[in-house]
Design brief:
Chain lengths: ~475, ~250, ~110, ~600, ~300
Amino acid sequence: MKYSVILIALPLLLAFLSMFIKKGKENLLYLGMLINVMLLFVLEQGTYLIGGFERPFGITLVIDQYSYIAVLLVNLLFFFSIISNYKQIGKHSTVLLTLLAGVNGLVMTGDLFNLFVFLEITTISAYILTTSNKNYVGTFNYIIVSAVGSSLYLLGVIMLYAGYGTLDFRTMTEAISESNMSVMLPMLFIFAGLSVEAKLLPFNGWVKGVFSKANGLVGTMLASIIATAMLFVMGRMLNVLITDSLIMDLALTIGIITLVLGELSAYNSKSIKDVLLYSSIGQSGLVTILMISGLIFPAIIVIINNGIAKLIMFTIADEATKEKDDFKGFFSNHQLMGIAFTVASFSLIGLPLFMGFYAKLNSLIGLFEMNLLLPALLLLVTIVEGAYLIRLNIKLWYLGEEGTATTEIEKASQKPSLSMIVATLVLAASLIAVGLMPEVLGDSITDKSLLNEKQIEYMTDLKGGM
Amino acid sequence: MKKVLALLLLATLAFMTITLVVDNNLLPDFGETKVENSVSDTYIKQNAMGENQDIKFGETKNLEIGSANAITGIVAGYRSFDTLGEVTVLFISALGVSLMIGTTDSWMKRSQSGFILRVGSKAILPILMIVGVYIITHGHLSPGGGFQGGAMIASAMLLLSLSDHEFMPKIKAFKMLEGLSGTIYILIGLVGMILMGHFLQNIDQTGTIGELFSAGLIPVVYLFIGLKVGSELTGIISDFMKKEANI
Amino acid sequence: MINLAAIVLMLLGLYALLTTKHIIKMVVGLNVFEVGLNLFVITIGFNKDGIAPILTGSNSIKDFVDPLPQAIVLTAIVIGFGITAVALMVARKIHEQYGTYDINEIGGK
Amino acid sequence: MNLLSILAVLIVGGLAAYLLSKANKLLGAITTILTTVLSFVMLFGIKDQIGSTETFLYFNFQLTEIGWYFAFVLSLTYGMSAFYNVCYKDKFMYPNSYAMLYILSLGGSLGLFFAKDFITFFVFWELVVWTSAFIIPLGKSRRASFIYYVVSSIGSMATLFAIMWIYKLTGTMMIKEALMSVDLNFWPSVILFMTFILSGLTKIGIFPFHVWLPLAHGSAPHTFSPILSGGLVKLGAYVAYLSVAVFPSYEIFGEGWMYRGIPLPIYFLMVLGAISIIIGTVMAIKQDDAKKLLAFSSVANGGYILIGILMMDEITFAGGLLHLFAHAVASATAFLTITAVAYRTGTTKISELGGMIHRMPITYTVYLISIISMAGIPPMAGFVSKWLILQGLASKGLIIIAFAAFFGSIGSFMYVFRPLAAVFLGQLAPKHENLKEAPIMMLIPMILMTIITLTVGVVPKLVLNFIVDVQAEAGIKVVSMTGGALDVFNGYLDATRVFVIFGFGFLIALVLFLLMPKTRSVSLMDTYTSAEFIYTPELLHYAHDFYAPFERLYKNHPSTLKLYERASLKLKEIGLFVDYAFMNQRPATSIMWILIIVTIVTIGGAF
Amino acid sequence: MTFQNFLNAFLFVLAAFAFQTSITGINRKVMARLQKRRGPRWYQQFLDIFKALSKSSISHGWVYDFGVIMALGGIMATVIFIPVADFRAFPNTDNIFIISYVLAVGMLGMAMSASGSGNPWASIGVGRALTNMLAYEVPFMVVVVTMIFGFKTASVGEIAGIQQGLGIFGWNLFRMPLGAIVGFISLQGMLGKKPFDSFIAPAEIASGPMVEYGGKHLGMLFILHDLSTFIEVSLIVNLFLGGGATFLEFGIKYFVVYTLANLVSGISPRFKIDQAVVFYYKFPLLASIVQGFIVIFTGWGVTKWL
């Protein structure tokens, strides 16, 4: 419990130290990353008071079951992303360290304003990372929109402070539940502010400019690590803070719109990066729907599944489209990478024997409790999702024009690094492992395995533990 | 046409938000905020750890934070984690700007500055520096603090570079100063953790309120923040003066 | 009264963002929006008969104004500065790449 | 030897095939033969363990009669077609993954038949779907596999919806208990029934979902088409069985509107089956590619099977299940022969072939017997099953469906004869002059399958015994047989006697033929051409537009594939709209959207 | 399945052949009278057949021969199945579906040997024959299904037995008038008589499928043609005219039906193949379905009759 603050402080310390040394900044990055991963083993749940002050007064770092998984996932994904894309780090090692600290802070902090600060740290490091793909207009658009978004969030927090006098998350939620003041406006601003970064549909105008030419590192960072952190934060907000019914309906409608339109535009897009980009928008819409309808356990698995799958797919997509855009020959020459990519896309669709299937079953069980339309919608969207991902996979594996059966395989020039192959295969294996033995994931969260009884008890102590 | 639409949209939004802000029972009306029912009441009375004593300027000893200026108490004491985050934000933006500028040392050509500016800046410069340092060191006693003082130092540097153009390229040490003060800030936090048990915890001998050497580690923290902010802002300004390396 | 003015100021900033074509003007609009926001934050803590929360010999802590919003504003201002610095640098890079600040011309490429 | 050992053999065999064929392709192909034939043999080993349950990880299996029967049919077709892998081993881009996916798809289908709970059912169902989706592109077209996957994922998602809904209603995942204890009033149970059976419809290729069949079969690798039409199409029949027999559909829909004793939803499905028979036949007559022709015939025969299973009475149900077996064997054999021809000549286009009989006589006879069975002509198994279906339809008085059944069976004479005349008979083109008979590895399965069709045709009791067990298990009145002959209440068929009499007639004709003066055999070209000298003999082969007058009748017919394409285009337009409206690189647009949403909500909040 | 059965079967086939060929001869005289000429001797048909059989002819490979043998064998087997006035060569084999499908074996054999001969005209002829079959077979089968539903049995003999009770009015001709009309129209198609004989009409493409035949193949095909006429006409007689208690009654009904068909063929023009298909799918199909609904829903003519 004492180590949770080191997860944030250490990367910052290394970031500041990296100003001293000219060359070899990457080693600091690797060091910080490794220590963070090692700390994960000794991490245990509890709230950490910064500065020694009790809950409502000082800032607290909270690790309950919900954020325990979040921290675990975020750090592991960061570790794998750096391993597999170390070639593209270039001058960004310091920024990556601050990004690591910001993302850990986002997930752990128990204070609303502190969340705003960490949101800023993460987004500014993201701005600087995206400048590496030379699409400055996209970055500029990203800066303006997410600056407006976070300011709206701050506006919401201040209004809540004016009403309840505290900035601490848990005391705020208790205060809100006791009093019956109309909290619609602040919650609207908070929801609007956060959904800009969580890529919900009307708010995510910036996504295409940033992602469509992002290289492997930036793509994985934004699509897998920051997205996972933001979805966890969004989940916490939607479940606990936002209690105003109008905003909850708004969140549900926006979630549905994002899911449907995200998947449809993915179905429509041609280049592989656009497909991944819209698919991650769709997934964040799905997570919002699940969170707002109180299904925390399925939402967590969807986030994990999306995080891992996006990491694999972005790395491989970038590696494969180095030379020409359509990487036809890549899979046939590097079958291992092809298998990892296919496993990731199958898990994203939710085909059996993969983690995605376990997530889909759980969410269906939950959604069926509410009404028949939502599961139907989810399944229709899965058809569209299955369609464009299978089309992508078939196009990547099999060469030859439409009418002819080819047998020869043309040489592909890319040579993926060994660490990339190992990282993607390990992640793909983890997807399969959870698919085969879901109890592995199940018992680390209080929910029992799916099959022996109806999934009643989600991870209930989200409210309490905060 | 776009303008009219935007205007219409914003007018409705204005009308809506104002009606909601004015007549909703959440926000107290303008000017009637009661400090008592908010957490900042303990920040003022500095009784977060429990024992409540009435604070008299110059007498009460060893308060929790012990800083006369309540805002500095919050910024560098109760919520110093925010300030740490705050400093990193500034650090990253400075870093980002220098990354984007690239490692070029060709500076923009600018015409020779006017006589009045050259002479005037020589006169104003010392005042600026002294006041800036004063504000940084007296952060816990008088209004102001690390950020404000740092900004003043940076403006001094800007004035200097405006007056004579060779000044800015001569400063190399800023990056080092920036990194150093950031590291020390975190080390203070870690020391607090080892000594007092919690990250960024203030030592408990915070001296008598109102004196120069009071409020424990707060002035030290603010000093380094001041240096860091000063160096970062100057760094950013110098980067903006550089000419773009033709990438 | 001033918090309504702050809201109007925020909306003015947004109006600038919505209608301007010039990139630097957008950054300026963003700043106006953030200044309005900071003003609103400050007015949250304002108390008619309160004084600045700094303890000097002559005043006592009873009639302090709420110091927390002012601490928050301090951080918000510096963050605003950070974003503006990065935004301006990106604007400068855009100018180098496209030779113009007009987003309509840039949008096409 | 139990349930799990068969599945283990297949799954492990699949992975082994992948590794072995990395070493050398022949080894991989041989493993496919060994594993599939071994699984077929082991099936007979576990015939007596009906009802035994096994569990592995979170899958649990149970051997049922119906499961055993389907597994028997599928492993037969897989086993026989596996022999072709040896000759086709170096014609694939990924021979190792082909061998693995081939065995895994059989493993998937067997697992599906033995599944005791819905999760196992769905897991193995999807395993079959995506393994076959990755085999089809090895053939000619990538688009076919995409359409195949989309249509079957429509089906499987609908079934998943129904499964989850049942899980919510009954709380258990066990297929038998869950389906039995569903109690909804009329219309919701209709929706549940329709969504559950949807994956069956898409797999069998019933009317609205048949678009993928010609594309997938037509362009799948030549060795996989027989399995696609012989084996995988039958998976849908299993789902149809589940949704009609295990799910008490006749009781639940009993009090709703009935037509001739059949509840409305089931009659609607039967009409769909009838429509797909008509569409399958009419389109098959028109096709020029032999594989597409056989694919459309699978659509038509799929309609028969569905009608048979949906009727759930003693005659038609038995006819449906027997037709499942007969069609599986017949269409697999037909595809195998076409593959043999394609192996030698490289094309399956009917108009480019001709006179194959002169070079490949055995393949010709095998094809002749398989189409006799497919057309449902007496001495073969196809006749017995069609006879049962027609008798059943007549006994219930379903005129419209009977009309479609007749149209289908008589239409089948036409489309099975087209390849016979145009591919095998007629003039042999000079370029096929030095053609050899199909290799021995291909002849073995063909001859075996012909013998099976013939024996089951003559002695239908062999397969009918299995069907009788299934009917007993499903609680339907068992089809009555008196000593090898079908003695149903409105008809009597003794297949052996019919065969004997046919043999007797053939004997008389043969004697008559031999008594008459000997004939002088003449070269192929020496035909009655009204005294005109022939310069280009190969042009004198009637293969193109074989049924021109009939095809003219429905030249510009509406095609359902166009419907699918238009729907997909609509979806793409919505996607384009998102790209245009939200995603351009101006901050103003996203801020505009944020403000619009905030204003709307504030207005909403104020009231 | 005793030897006696096989002997009866063989004798029955011979009798059927003799009976039908002589009636064909007589009808050729009737047709001639129609065209104001006297026509050949009544046993001319026998002479043609035996002449053709005695000639030595050419063969286009084993398929060409095997096809003819299989066709003739199939038709002879179908003749054995036909029940005539309570004579059954083999018990329980007169199921309507067996008869119509074994008939198809004959068709298939003939088609196979025709296109096996290598002559493209033969394949065109066979294609037309099969399309024609699709046309006339389907309405007939729908009527058959109505009968099976109505009389609860699919054996032709039993159906004939049921009709004999009430004298003339017991016949299906009166019980199911629409069905009978459809039966006669499809008989015209089955026999390949004039309105629907474009596939074997001499004026059409060099006499359709039979183009390559000569000598004993042609002879055998003549036998095949006569025996299939016997099957089709006796089917119609059994199903619609009560099948006759004695051979004589059956013979008279048979002669009347066959001559009627010939007369109709004598005076009607010839349909193109697609016109024939369109014709059969207009009135005949509609009539058979209407007849079906009548029988199923109201039961007139079957359960409720005189």
